[in-house]
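Example S7 (structure tokens).
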């Protein structure tokens, strides 16, 4: 049976400590007892953002004062085909006064979520585990020792996601550097992904691989790692990353960079237009640093990826 698609707005309420809110569906509802992100159907004449604000007022008794577009996913249940518009809700007024759920629960990313979860919400839990800042290494330019020192400083400051991109190092030096970087990142509970070289990632036990745009477009099936991402420069590349079920994409350049001289800069409006409505988190890239985190997330980015900006902030 073919079901009409139902538009749904869902809110990822985020506390200052990074915890997010889940609600358990009441006994008299479809999928009773399952856990979900709060929200509800988009009514005629409403935007998804307006629908979410209304639903959170009706369900939780809060007035949203700041939200951000984040992800959009589709899921086919037995009873309905739903398209869920997920927003990050970062500020609200009023105390939570639940009116529709059996229970509420706050969870931090990486903590075990209550079970059972609605199937459409499962991938969102993994996306919430993805740190908001990615540092991209440049050991071939600055030297291995200098890069490792900068990595240690950045990890001390809270960096937990690193992409090792070192085409300029010879294979032996690259592997030695990758092992040293991985030990430092894992000691802090972070994730390290290897650009392009899946064999190196497997040998050293890295957390995943990152595909450059040309490799992405030549890939037909998702590589067999827990974490896989890709660099993108167009909507077609972003949609291919989504079709492969990748965990994130990088999109840029937002500003002019020395890494890609002459490449047209997207600016925040251009970034927002290309990244809108995707089911995978998108990092903004290109001339950015930690100071750009708020405007990036307001434009729909999951966070920031940076080469020089990631390490300069740690000096």
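Recovered sequence:
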């Amino acid at each position: 049976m073919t079901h009409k698609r139902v538009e749904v707005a869902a809110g990822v309420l985020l506390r200052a400590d990074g915890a997010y809110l889940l609600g358990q569906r009441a006994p008299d509802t479809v999928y009773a007892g399952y856990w979900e992100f709060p929200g509800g159907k988009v009514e005629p004449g409403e935007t998804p953002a307006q629908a979410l604000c209304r639903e959170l007022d009706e369900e939780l008794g809060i007035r949203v004062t700041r939200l951000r577009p984040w992800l959009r996913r589709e899921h086919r249940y037995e009873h309905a085909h739903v398209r869920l518009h997920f927003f990050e809700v970062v500020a609200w007024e009023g105390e939570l006064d639940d009116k529709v759920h059996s229970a509420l629960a706050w969870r931090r990313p990486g903590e075990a979520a209550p079970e059972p979860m609605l199937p459409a919400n499962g991938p969102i839990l993994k996306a919430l585990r993805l740190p908001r800042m990615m540092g991209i290494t440049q050991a071939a330019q600055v030297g291995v020792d200098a890069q490792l020192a900068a990595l240690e400083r950045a990890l001390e400051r809270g960096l937990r996601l690193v992409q090792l991109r070192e085409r300029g190092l010879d294979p032996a030096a690259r592997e030695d550097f990758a092992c040293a970087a991985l030990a430092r990142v894992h000691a802090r509970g972070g994730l390290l992904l290897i650009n392009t070289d899946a064999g190196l990632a497997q040998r050293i036990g890295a957390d995943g691989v990152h595909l450059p745009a040309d490799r992405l477009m030549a890939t037909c099936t998702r590589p067999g790692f827990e974490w896989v991402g890709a660099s993108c420069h167009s909507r077609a590349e972003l949609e291919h990353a989504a079709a492969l079920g990748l965990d994130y994409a990088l999109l840029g350049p937002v500003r002019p960079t020395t890494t890609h001289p002459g490449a047209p800069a997207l600016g925040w409006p251009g970034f927002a237009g290309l990244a809108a409505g995707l089911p995978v988190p998108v990092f903004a890239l290109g001339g950015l640093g930690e100071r750009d985190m708020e405007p990036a997330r307001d434009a729909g980015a999951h966070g920031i990826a940076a080469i020089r900006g990631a390490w300069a902030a740690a000096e």
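Notes on this example. The longest helix spans residues 171-187.
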